[in-house]
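Standup notes
- DV: blocked on the single-chain target, sequence here:
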Amino acid sequence: MARKGRGGKRRRVCNFCVDKIDRVDYKDADRLRKYMTERGKILPRRISGNCARHQRQVTVAVKRARQVALLPYTVE
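- DV (later): unblocked, structure below
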């Protein structure tokens, strides 16, 4: 158990699990932008706080949204 005030960081909860979203939609570009850096990279799971299942779905959805030109590959 972590002591108070000494580096005891809480685990982030998956926003998709909290909202009871079973499928991540690639057309929801606003939601997917939260899981990308300003340079266009996909945030890793340890930073975004997603569970493994939803992180895989986010990755596929971002790649699909880039393919259909809803999200940029990079920002110049």
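- Follow-up: The domain at 26-68 is CATH 4.10.640.10 (30s Ribosomal Protein S18).
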